[in-house]
Structure to design on (458 residues):
């Protein structure tokens, strides 16, 4: 009888031992196991990513020569525009450097731009993350800003040997210091409103009551430059603000770019030490 | 002897990788599939306690390795999938003798119930404990994801359970003998 009772409780005793052993295990061992099991699966993820690139390549090969010539012509126009802007930027940077020297101001942080392919999108209600195909082999640091042509993508959370995980701007784990375009009041941004079958949204908080936004003219929310992100990068657009319960500040939803969920390539801003 | 949990682990890892790819393509639609319950079911229903638990712990570690570590207060809670998957395994193992566990229909029901339990457990850890600022905003998405996931399990569970059984047969493992083994 007692053996039968032991028989029935043995699974639970085993569970208790496993849980206790796991909780008592040093963090170094847990981290080692995490890295090991990630690297075990990494080839599958990376291979699938390369296969997708190959599919895209063969899909591009189906375009006719006329289409390619047309695309090249359009690119030439865009390139000419960018070339002019690059010249202007160079002149402005020289001016900034001169003023910094004159006023003895600390120089703005410089970044190295590291383009990386997205090999896995993992967007759920619990987390919103991308895995990119570059890691410590390209000296990516944890916390580095990740951007794309539409603005902020997110922040590097974990760096592995050949991959890195990026917390998306829509992730509930991501908070940023921000301000509205052409306004200096600092506000707080946090991701985390991810409705089903619709683009993700974020939340802006601690907006001073003197800022007014009309739904017919949404205002651009940009990074403030406090923290890792350089100033002026687009986070999203705010169309409406509501006064918070304490009446001191306003808060509102931030519409994020729908392209965030379809990204195939991003740029990691790797901070560089000043000379 | 090792073949039992190795075969079950690798077939489960295959499914996990395939669903990861599917989630990659579903991401722009705002849909996410979670199949934790299905990853545990076969090992808990058909293998002995030791072999089943080893397979479950390995797949839980594999899942934990690619998903973010939840932050509870100032502490990182390593292995949320490991703790939940192991608990689900033990509960299913404890109850399995009272039911026709070789039946696909029963296994399907078990997978759905286990998935529901695991989904709620992970939601509690990641939303209530991990990011408690705006839990209400996440509930609609979570409800929708749970619905898609249950439908997906309903569709693929019979195939996946047969795949695992066939893989064990190809590995020359007698499941009837395994069924009589407790530990």
């Amino acid at each position: 009888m007692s053996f039968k009772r032991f028989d029935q409780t043995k699974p639970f005793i085993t569970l208790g031992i496993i849980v206790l052993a796991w909780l008592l295990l040093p963090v170094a061992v847990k981290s080692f196991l995490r890295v090991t099991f990630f690297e075990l699966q990494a080839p599958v993820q990376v291979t699938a990513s390369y296969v997708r690139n190959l599919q895209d390549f063969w899909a591009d090969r189906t375009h006719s020569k006329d289409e390619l010539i047309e695309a090249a012509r359009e690119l030439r126009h865009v390139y000419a525009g960018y070339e002019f802007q690059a010249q202007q930027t160079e002149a402005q940077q020289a001016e900034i450097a001169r003023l910094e020297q004159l006023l003895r101001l600390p120089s703005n942080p410089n970044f190295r731009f590291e383009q990386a392919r997205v090999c896995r999108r993992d967007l759920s209600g619990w987390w919103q993350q991308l895995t990119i195909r570059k890691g410590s082999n390209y000296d990516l640091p944890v916390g580095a800003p990740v951007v794309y042509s539409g603005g902020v993508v997110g922040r590097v959370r974990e760096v592995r040997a050949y991959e890195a995980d990026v917390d998306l701007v829509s992730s509930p784990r991501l908070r940023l210091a921000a301000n509205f375009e052409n306004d200096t009041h600092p506000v707080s941004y946090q991701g985390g409103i991810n409705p089903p079958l619709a683009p993700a949204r974020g939340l802006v908080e601690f907006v001073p009551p003197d800022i007014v936004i009309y739904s017919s003219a949404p205002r651009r929310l940009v990074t403030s430059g406090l923290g890792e992100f350089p100033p002026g990068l687009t986070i999203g657009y705010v169309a409406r603000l509501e006064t918070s319960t304490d009446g001191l500040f306003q808060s509102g939803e931030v519409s994020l770019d729908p392209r965030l969920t379809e990204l195939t390539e991003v740029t990691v801003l790797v901070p560089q030490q000043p000379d | 002897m090792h073949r039992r949990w190795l075969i079950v682990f690798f077939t489960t890892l295959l499914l996990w990788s395939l669903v990861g790819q599917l989630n990659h393509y579903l991401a722009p639609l705002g849909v996410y599939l979670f199949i934790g319950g299905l990853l545990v079911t076969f090992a808990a229903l058909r293998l002995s306690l030791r072999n089943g638990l080893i397979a479950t712990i390995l797949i839980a570690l594999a899942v934990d390795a690619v998903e973010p570590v939840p932050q509870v207060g100032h502490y990182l809670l390593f292995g949320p999938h490991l703790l939940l998957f192991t608990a689900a395994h033990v509960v299913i193992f404890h109850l399995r003798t009272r039911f026709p566990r070789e039946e696909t229909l029963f296994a399907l029901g078990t997978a759905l119930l286990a998935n529901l339990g695991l989904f709620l457990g992970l939601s509690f850890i990641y939303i209530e404990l991990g990011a408690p600022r705006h839990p209400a905003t996440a509930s609609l998405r979570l409800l929708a994801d749970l619905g898609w996931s249950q439908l997906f399990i309903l569709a693929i569970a019979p195939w996946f359970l047969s795949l695992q059984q066939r893989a064990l047969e190809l590995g020359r493992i007698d499941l009837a003998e395994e069924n009589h083994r407790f530990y």
